[in-house]
Amino acid sequence: MIYPTFAPLARTGDPVLVPDRGRSGTAWRRRALSWALTVLGLALAVLAWAAASGSSTGDFQLVPTPAATFAALARLLRSPDFLADLAASLERIGMGFALSMATGLVLGAAIGVSRSLSALLGGIIDALKYTPVTTFIPLTILWFGVGDLQKVVVLGLGTAPYLAAMVADAIRATRTEYVHGARTLGAGTMTIVWRVVVPSAAPQVWQAGRLSFAIAWTYLVTAELVGANQGLGRFLVLSERFIHIADMFAATVVIGCIGFVSDILFRLAYRRLFPWMLHATEQGRDGV
Question: What is the pLDDT of residues 182-202, one digit of tens each?
Fold first, then answer.
């Protein structure tokens, strides 16, 4: 593991060098409490769902029970057609997120480092941020058809501007004393960028990517609602057309579970890649 050059120097008795079992135990207790509250929140949501389904009346339930939804989910997970829709959405989200990350990182780094490029491109990025992605769907269908490329472009247009802005903010947040210190030691521009700016901004950029991934799922399903041959969005449209409400709820549960697991993976990777940020957080909580 390579730590950034601006990490604080260790001191005698510092818990970085001498592990504090009490503090470690406190961290584990906090983590256990966090998971317990997460489980409690999910349980309360299911109870509220069950209560809402019990109040639904008529020839068919507008809010299916949790049991009916999970029965539909079990059936769908054995359906080749549903699995094909799920695979199509996962493939699109992967390509779209990769495009968004590549575009957002390049644009964000450019406007974050250069004031001239910020003035040149900042207005365009701000305008795209406030433009609803649904306005691009008819245009992208005319330009690219209804295939995967159109969905990927919609994802890029929807998430890249936000990501670029967050990357630029992370770069601008680099503390000036680190940059001045590196220059004093004789570092050139590229050395400062790679050894000071990048390590400083990387944790915030990772969190920006985590947020963008969540937003990308929203835009993906929106794009698949119109003119898609496969995908979870198309599945929801067909289920609504034939009033298969339990199937709609089951597909929504699948999307939610994918998001939940993805967020956990992002958090675990964050802890692995940026351990000094966790130490700084613990210090702040303990009032150090």
Answer: 888 888 878 888 888 888 899
Neighbours of 194 (CB within 10 A): 11
The residues, ordered by sequence, that sit 6+ positions from 200 with a Cβ below 8 Å of its Cβ are: 4, 6, 170, 173, 174, 175, 178
Report, as an integer, the average pLDDT of 66-87.
93
Q: Which residue has the tokens 């409490």?
A: 33
Arithmetic mean of pLDDT, 251-271:
92
Q: How many Cα atoms sit within 13 Å of 154 on the Cβ side? A: 36
For residues 257 and 251, what is the distance between their CA atoms, to the nearest angstrom? 10
Residue type at 43 in one-letter notation? A
Is residue 275 within 8 Å of 7, Cβ to Cβ?
no
- Mean pLDDT of the region 147-170: 91
Q: What are phi and psi of 145, to 5 degrees?
A: 80, -160
Contacts of 118 (CB under 8 A, 6+ apart): 111, 112, 168
Q: At residue 87, what is the residue type?
A: A
Q: In Å, how far are 7, 93, 156, 204, 211 from 97, measured between CA atoms?
A: 31, 6, 7, 17, 11
Query: Do residues 10 and 16 lie in contact, with contact meaning Cβ atoms separated by under 8 Å?
Result: yes
**For 3-58, how does the pLDDT look when each residue is reduced to its tens digit (9 = 90+)?**
444 444 444 444 444 445 555 567 788 878 888 888 898 889 888 888 888 766 55
Read off φ and ψ for residue 82, nearest 5 degrees.
Answer: -65, -40
Q: In the structure encoding, which two tokens stand for residue 195, read together?
A: 């050894």
Q: Which are the contacts of 99, defined by CB distance < 8 A and separation ≥ 6?
A: 152, 153, 155, 156, 160
Q: Domains of the chain, with CATH numbers?
A: 81-242 (1.10.3720.10)
Question: Which residue has tokens 């990182």?
Answer: 105
Sign of CA dihedral 280, 282, 284, 288: negative
Instruction: Give the pLDDT score at 12.
Output: 41
